[in-house]
Amino acid sequence: MDMLLEESFSPSKPGIVRASVRKVRRLLRGTASETEWASSNLITCVSARENRHSILPPSAPDPALLSQTWKTLQNLYERYPPQPLTLKLNNFASISTFPSLEEIKHHTDISKSDALTSRQNHAEVIDSIPPIPQNQFAGRGVVMLAGGKYSEYAATGLGMLREVGSRLPVEVWMKDKTEEKDGWCDELAREGMACRRLSDYMDLTALEHPYQWKVFTIMFSSFAEVLFIDGDNMPIQNPDDMFEAEDYAATGVVLWPDYWKNTGSPFLPFVMGISDEASEMMRDQKTVESGELLWNKERHWEALCLAAYYNYYGPKYYYTLISQGWAGWGDKDTFPIALQSLHKDCYMVPYGLRAMFVNGTGFVEGMIQSNPSNKTGFEPMFWHMNMVKWSIRNLLCVGCSSDPEGAVAASALENEQSPMHAHLKEGRPIISKTNMESFDMNPEPLVWKSMEHTTCRSVWKNAELCARTREHMTKAFGFQFRAGRIATILGYGDRLCVRDS
Question: DSSP letters of 171-236?
Answer without folding.
Answer: EEEESSGGGPPTTHHHHHHTTTEEEEEGGGT---TT--SGGGTHHHHHHHSS-SEEEEEETTEEES
